Each structure stands twice: as structure tokens, then as C-alpha cells.
Amino acid sequence: MSALLTATCAVPAAGAVLTAALPAGTSEARRRTTKTVALAVSAVTLALTALVAVRFDPHGARYQLTESYSWIRSFGISFSLGVDGIGAVLALLTAVLVPVVMLASWHDADPAPAVAPAAPAGGADPDTFEGRRRTQAFFALILAVEAMVVVSFYATDVFLFYVFFEAMLIPMYFLIGGFGDRAGGPESARQRSYAAVKFLLYNLLGGLVMLAAVIGLYVIGQEQGLGTFDLPTLTNAIADGSLKLSGTAQDALFLGFFFAFAVKAPLWPLHTWLPNAMGEATAGTAVLITAVVDKVGTFAMLRFCLGLFPDASKTFAPAILVLSLIGIVYGALLAVGQKDIKRLVAYASISHFGFIIMGIFALTSQGQSGATLYMVNHGLSTAAWMLVAGFLISRRGSRLIADYGGVQKVAPVLAGTFLIGSLATLSLPGLAPFVSEFLVLVGTFTRYPAIGIVATFGIVLAALYALLLYQRTMTGPVKDGVRSMPDLKVRELAVVAPLVALTILLGVYPRPLTDLVNPSVDATLSQVHRTDPAPAHPVAATSGGEQK
Q: For residues 447 and 362, is the Cβ–Cβ distance under 8 A?
């Protein structure tokens, strides 16, 4: 039994502990050591996830490189890991983005430049966390998030997945609340606290509902002599009828799981925590939220909702498609009207997640392949867009669109990379999101033509909010606060370059991803007993000239 998956999960977890335990201090040398160690750990994790993807055989078993270690034997809970094509691709996306986020956030945890308050009479340091431990905590939390997300993509035990699905909320809570955007103004600390608490409460509520469903699934299985949380065992038992779930039970359990995933995804109307969290977090943390953590929700819809509850998935698919459609249009419309750059990106992400969920529940091979590709491509394009926006905001000290203008005249490279991110967001042909959005729309149209047609309106709105943002910030007269703005530095170019390169490469040649995910998509569709709708054929003529 290979331990490759365990090693891939253990490296960032151990790195988080090591980073947190490094000697504390406010000196530049000690901060640089902390950052270098964390970056090195993330690089090793990237190498391991790439090895997993290379060793995965698309034509082999559904779950490969499997490992299982007994955990809570009395309840049939084990530390079981296995990778399918979708999990391999999303774990690799996570591993690519984490070192990029670290480089982009290189100075985000440095002590604030403001003058520190005087020490109290007793001589104690009033700013211990903000000063001596701030850098260690920040980078350790990023590695902790990476470890928990990777475990979630590899977990094949339902209870194990639930534990890490919930546990990742804790480091994210501290990243949002403790390391917020310094451009937020004097009320920033209070707003960060509100955003962090809202993020935590929303997602905890979803997790508690899921926990009830997890327990319910175990109890029903135990009554039928199948007391286990092993996902392949449960899906096979449900498929062959050895585990019988009544229609009512399956519907209730499906809704319990789906509610938690829809909160994390986020799906309208459970989305309201996202604009607050992304608006108040640093740009790097915002990327972790929308490009990494939120993908666990959409991934879980494919793996757990469709795999465990195939009949309920078909029952609720039309209603979920309507919610997705509302999210597409609603998120795009609100993005058009935003005055805050980061909140605009957040509402744009809500619209994009609507496309992803629509592709999943269209229950077609094109739709689900497109949805999986969309998870990857949205992660890359939104990361590039948000991180360049973060560089822009850090230079000007403001998130308001109205404070910018004429940036392309003083920082052309920054403006150019921001333009590529904007064009990728509106799914310009030749860039990666176009391929996934096209597949989602085609896959939806073949089964639900009306929904597919209305969803295309979201593309028009995406062009509107993306190009208006570029026009208002990058073109026109140079604003006073922009005149001395420096262009991208070497470290910042190192952040943006791989994202731009991957966005272009996967837009021109997406086959490496489709080859990995398509077998897993086909297996998922077979679990829900769905095939692609037959295409409409033209009327054929007989050899004698008569029409059939």
C-alpha cells in the first residue's frame, strides 16, 4: 500500500507546525526565514500533488493510490484516502495556488508601519501577536488550510471528509479576522471581525446540518448490517440495492449534504458571507477563499451528493438549476454596480459558481466536464485578477474604483496583467475559462434548453462588469494618487506569470485536464443512471428518395 497520499497531506500539516514553532521576533531576518520555510514546504507539496496526478491512470480504477488506516474501529471510521481524476486535478490546483498566494502575501503579515503604542508600566509587550508572532501565524495558517483542503479532495471516508470539511474553517477564520486588508479604513478591524464571524457561523451551520445527515446515513446503514462510512462501499451498496434508502430518507439526506456544500460553494441565496469575507481579507486570503476552499463545496456535490443519493439528485436537479441561474444573473448584476474592487470580484465569483453548479446538475457529460474544468480555470483566472487587484490596492491604499484612473499610463505591465485577468473573467475565447463555460452551456442546453439560453445572459453581464472595471481604473486621465504608482516588481511578476501562462495554455490546449477528469465524470453519471440526451438528427432519406 503506497503512502503517497498520506505524505502529500502530511507535508503541509507538518510545515504548518514547523512554521508556527520557528523562533519569534520582529527582525527582518527572522521574518524572511519563516516565509522561506513556508514557501519551501508549499513547493514540496506541489511536487507531491504533481506526482499523484502523473501516477493516476485515467483508464484505471475509479479510486487509485488508496490507503486506509483504522481510526475509530467501533464506528467503522478509518483514515481512508483515494484519488480520482477530479480530486487529482483540484488538489493540484490547490498546490499551485498556495505558493503563489504566499509570494503575493510576502509582506501582508509584516508589522504595520504605524508607530507602535507605548508599553504599559509593567514593561510587557502590548502587541505580542501583531509583532513577534504575526508572520509565523499567518504562513502557518495558510499551510494548515492547504493540508485540510488536500485531505478533503483525497478522503474516501465520509466522516473523515466531514471532519476536515469543518476543520478548515478555523484557520480561515483567523486569516480573515486577524490579517485583514489594511486599505479598509479606520473601521477595518470591526469589519474584519464581522466578516470572519459571519463566515464561520454560516459555514458551521451548514456543517451541523451535514453532520446530522452523516449520522442518519450511518444509522440507516447499520440497521441493514452495513455500519460503515467508507464511500466506495456505500456507493456500491446503494447502486446494487444492498443498502436500501426510501425516497423520503434519500431526499432528506441529500438535502442535508447539499445544504452544507451550497453554503461553502456558495450558491444563492446562501452566498451573503462571501462578499464580506473577500472584501475584508487580504488579496491572498481572498484567493484562498474563492479559488481553494469554496471548490471543496462544488467538488463534494459531485462526489457525495451524486454518488450517495442518485435518485434525489435527479429529483432536485431542476430546482438547483433554477437557483444556479438566479446566482449567475444576480451575482453579475451586483458586480456591475459595485464601487469596491474586491467586492466586485466577490460578486463575479458568485456568478461563476452558479455556472459550476449548473454544469454539475445538468447531469450531462459536457456539463460535468465543463464544471470540473471551470473549478480549475476559475481558480486560476480569479487568482490572477484578485492578486493584481491586491497589488493595485496596496499601492494606492484604497479599494474604491473611483480613486483610480489612468493606471496603464504609469504602470503598463500591471495594467496589462489586469486586462488579461479581466478578459479571462469574461471568458474570452483562447483563455481557459472559455472552454469550461462553453461546455457547461452546451451540456445544460442539451437537457434544459430554456435554462441554457437564459444563462448566456451572464456572459454579457460579465463583459460589462469586467470591462467597466478596467476602463474606470486603467484608462482615462491619471488621478493624483496614481501618478507615482510603481509598476509590478520582480516578485509580483513571479506571482502573476504562472497564472497567466496556465490561463493561456489551458485555453488553447485543455486536453491534459479533460483526459484526467472525463473518466471520473462518466463514472459519476453512471451512478445517477444518466446518459447524455440523444442529439436531434436531420430527417434521413431512403435510397428511393422517400423520407423515413
A: yes
Partner residues linked to 79 by β-bridges = 69
Task: Please answer whether residues 509 and 431 qualify as being in contact, where contact means their C-beta atoms are separated by less than 8 angstroms.
Answer: no
Eight-state DSSP code of residue 243: S
Number of Cβ atoms within 10 Å of the Cβ of 185 = 13
Total count of residues recorded for the chain:
548
Cα separation of 256 and 258, whole Å? 6
How many whole angstroms separate alpha carbon 302 and alpha carbon 388? 31
Contact 79, 72 (CB under 8 A): no
Q: Any idea which residue has 501565524 for its cell?
A: 137
**Rounded Cα distance, 14 and 491, in Å:** 26
Q: Do the beta carbons of residue 125 and residue 93 sit within 8 Å?
A: no
Task: For residues 288 and 284, give the distance between their C-alpha atoms in angstroms, rounded to a whole number.
Answer: 6
189: which 3 cell numbers?
Answer: 478591524
pLDDT at 114: 45
3-state secondary structure of 536: coil
Helices (H) and strands (E) in the chain, counts: 24, 2
What global pTM score does this model have?
0.88
- Which three cell numbers, joined as nine digits, stand for 544? 428511393
**How many whole angstroms separate alpha carbon 38 and alpha carbon 14?**
10
Torsion of CA 442, 444, 447, 452, to 10 degrees: -90
Give strand ranges (E) for 57-179.
64-72, 77-83
Tell me the pLDDT tens digit for each residue of 123-170: 333 334 445 568 888 999 999 999 999 999 999 999 999 999 999 999
Closest alpha carbon to 524 in 152, 63, 88 = 63
Alpha helices (H) in 132-186, listed in sequence order: 134-154, 158-167, 169-178
Each residue's pLDDT tens digit, 411-455: 999 999 999 999 998 888 989 899 899 999 999 998 899 999 999
Contacts 24+ apart (CB under 8 A), 318-323: 318/448, 320/258, 320/267, 320/357, 320/361, 321/358, 321/361, 321/362, 321/444, 321/448, 321/451, 322/451, 323/267, 323/268, 323/269, 323/357
Q: Which parts of 362-431 fold into alpha helices (H)?
A: 365-396, 407-410, 412-425
pLDDT of residue 203: 92
In this predicted structure, the answer to whether residue 110 has a pLDDT above a threshold of 50 is: yes
Task: Please say whether the beta carbons of 198 and 276 come within 8 A.
Answer: yes
Per-residue pLDDT tens for 48-79? 999 999 999 888 888 899 898 888 888 888 99
**Cα→Cα distances 503→109, 309, 351, Å:** 28, 34, 19
Separation CA 300–CA 154 (nearest Å): 11
Rounded CA-CA distance 274/504 in Å is 28
506/434 Cα distance (integer angstroms): 10
